[in-house]
Amino acid sequence: MRIGIIGAGGVGGYFGARLATAGDEVTFVARGRHLAAIREHGLTVRSPLGDMRVPSDAVVPSISDLAAPDLIVVAVKLWDTEDVARQLAPLAEGGAAVVSFQNGVRKDTVLGRHLPAGSILGGVSYISAFIEEPGVVVHNGTLQRLVFGEYDRKESPRSRLFLDRCLAAGIDAEISGDIERTIWEKFVFLVGLSATTSAVRQPIGVVRGTAGSRSLLRDVMHEVVDVGRAKGVALDPGFADDRLAFCDTLPATMSSSMHNDLLRGNRLEVGWLSGAVADLGAELGVATPRNRAVADILSPYALGDPAAAA
Question: Which residue intervals define the domain Ketopantoate reductase C-terminal in the entry (predicted)?
Answer without folding.
Answer: 178-300
